[in-house]
Amino acid sequence: MKKLNNHIMDSKLKTDEQISFDRKLKEIHSSALGLKTPENYFSASKMEILEKVSNQKQEKFNIFSRKRIAWAAAATIAIIFAVSVFKPNALPSFNNVPAIVSDTINYLQNNNLAQGEFKEDDILITSLFVPDNEIDEFVNNYVLEELVYEDVLAN
Amino acid sequence: MTGEGEFIKNLLNNKEKDKAFKKLLDLYQERLYWHIRKLVITHENADDVLQNTFLRIYKSLPNFQQKSSLHTWMYRIAYNESLRFLEDHKKKYHASLDDVSHKYLNNLVDDAFFEGDEIQLKLQRILSELPEKERQIFQMKYYDDLKFREMSDILEIKEGTLKSSYYNTVKHIENNILAVELITKNKV
Q1: A144 DSSP assignment
Q2: What are the residues whose beta carbons fall under 8 Å from the beta carbon of A41, sequence distance 6 or more?
Q3: Which of helix, strand or coil describes residue A35?
Q4: Which residue range is the domain that position B154 belongs to?
Q5: pLDDT in tens, B35-72
Q6: pLDDT score recorded for residue B163
Q7: Cβ of A6 under 8 Å from any chain B Cβ?
Q8: Residue B107 counted as domain residue
Q9: Are residues B8 and B91 in the same domain?
Q10: Which among B24, B30, B125 is the top mutation candidate for probing chain A, defined by the most A β-carbons within 10 Å of its own β-carbon?
């Protein structure tokens, strides 16, 4: 409805001279050549053209946005590549894991896993880096020696 | 700044562009439609070409260098879009441009938006039998009321050549119409 009102307002932009020129054109084409148009054709056609122009603008915007995302992704990859080549220590790597993990691993490697004394969080993190059989051995010992012993003492 | 200069400035200004384009449609839609309709003949074809023309105009506005008037520039786009349309159909039907025009003319009688009588149909036939350029020159001058200077800009033909072509065509059409009238009278 708003579109229609806008159109009615816009049609007032035409001067009387222009309206009469268009009318004359219509008459001459009709009387001399027998050509006519569907009723209200020009209003309908105007709306259709404006809609197409608006869609074209939207399409252009979408293409622009897609291009921007592609450029951002390309730039990120380029930065990561450049930093990893020219400044490898700036990025986390397997050789550069947090200190607590490496300390725990070292501790476990230097001491027998079963003899170790450490917190549950440490165990969870460390378990990621320790072979499964060593984990099983540790859990069995821990359950038998610590939990059962505590339970006996408690009773 | 002139009225047209101000209007062009608005068309090129991103904030004012949409409003100015609506006005442009109001002012030129009908004129360009009739110009196109005579070249592509049926309403359906003219509707397609008119839409393409205005989309092209909107897209090309930033490249408008104001070497000619806005009116002439848009007519040239409409003319080129019409030729492009006919060329596409020419390729589709493996025919010449004149053959394509004849094909549309033959279908004109069945067109719901043609209500001409025998004389009007004859005039359409006489026009369609003219060489393409002569037909366009005649139509631009006689029906669209364009100035020879504007036609020269659109068609890129010298004004003198346009004038002589126009007057020769008028004579040719008059003679043919007289002949048609004589035939019609003899029939009665």
Answers
A1: I
A2: B47
A3: strand
A4: 116-188
A5: 999 888 889 999 999 999 999 999 999 888 888 888 89
A6: 95
A7: yes
A8: no
A9: yes
A10: B30
Q: What is the pLDDT of residues A52-72, one digit of tens each?
A: 988 877 766 565 566 666 777
CATH number at residue B76: 1.10.1740.10
3-state secondary structure of A24: helix
The C-alpha atoms of residue A41 and residue A34 are separated, in whole angstroms, by: 17
Say how many C-beta atoms besides its own lie within 10 A of residue B166's C-beta: 18
Q: Are residues B76 and B126 in the same domain?
A: no
- Domain assignment present for residue B87? The answer is yes
CATH number of B130's domain:
1.10.10.10
Residue A35: phi and psi, rounded to 5, are -95, 135
Regarding whether B91 and B5 lie in a shared domain, the answer is yes
Task: Say yes or no: B125 and B154 in one domain.
Answer: yes
- Are B124 and A18 an interchain contact pair (Cβ–Cβ within 8 Å)? no
Cβ–Cβ of A33/B123 closer than 8 Å? yes
Which residue matches tokens 């029939």?
Answer: B187
pLDDT tens string A82-139: 766 666 565 555 555 556 555 665 665 666 555 545 555 555 666 666 677 776 776 6
